[in-house]
Give the backbone structure.
Amino acid sequence: MNVANVVQVLAGLSWMLVIGSLVFAGAMVARRGNVGRVVPLVIGAVVLAVVLNVTAAGLVFIQPEERGVVITALKQAEAQQGIRTQALGPGLNWIVPFFENVQVYTISRQTYTMSSAVGEGQVSSDDSIAARTKDGQQVAIDASVIYGIDPTKVVDLHITWQARYEDQVVRPVARAAIRNAVSQFGIEEIVSSKRGELEQLVTDEIAQNFSDQNLILGDFLLRNITFSEEYAKAVEQKQIAEQLAQQAKFVVEQRKQEAEQARQVAQGQADAAVISAKGAADARLIQADAEAKALELIAAALQDSPDLLQYTYIQKLGPDVQVMLVPANSPYLFPLPTMTPAPSVSPTIPEPTPAPTTTP
């Protein structure tokens, strides 16, 4: 409780003291008592009550989040249109009792909400902003405006609007700015890519208009955007189609990946076959080269030792070979290493039977 409130309480109690003193004086008169001693008490109580009430009427305590506009009946150099040019600041202030009064305004942030939800905003019914987009679609906007009174222009606000600034400035300015901004965008832009740009456009317009009317915009909040039922169905169908298209695209990509994987496997197998064939070919070339060099060495050796070929041939024969048939034009090879002469068998020729002799 501040000092001004304490004085006002005391002022109220002082009138009770006056009434009590008057009752006491009346009782003394009724009893034919000494009224002279009661009169000073009554006068003192009245004077105290007057002083306290005058003091209470002149003291005004302003909270830190408030400013006071002084409305005066006196002609003062610093007053215009019956209002002091300077608002009362925080703390205990003095005004001329019974000739001046104070209209207190809060300078703290306030929120004005316009919503389609019943009971959510300042208007209990549906208070969303109906707006039409650039492409002719109608939308409903839920929004909140956070604002405050400019502390340095409280007097000007009072002169222009008094306490009507919320209904006659905040509400119409915000709704008009929203409609103007929505009309500059297509519905697809509002839904997706340019919602932030829409909010910024509304914020700039409201801030400028509030500044002209001695208000300060704290923030603008675009709470919700509601579409018509027809457009909502169209959007839902479009989203379903896009999802199906994305699914089909995913399937195609999956098939592409599988085909690429199969191609890479086939390519790897082909590369492996090529490498294997190349290795075999290189090995064959090396073997042929070695054989050629070996033949060259053999040919050189035969030139130096002609009998080497016959010796090598004999070495290659099997150990059990006893008889060999060689071509007629080939030389005979003698002796074989394990060859032994076979016994010769003379064939038995039967003797001829003598012819019988006939005697004439």
Summary: The first strand starts at residue 59 and ends at 62. The radius of gyration is 63 Å. The longest helix spans residues 229-304.
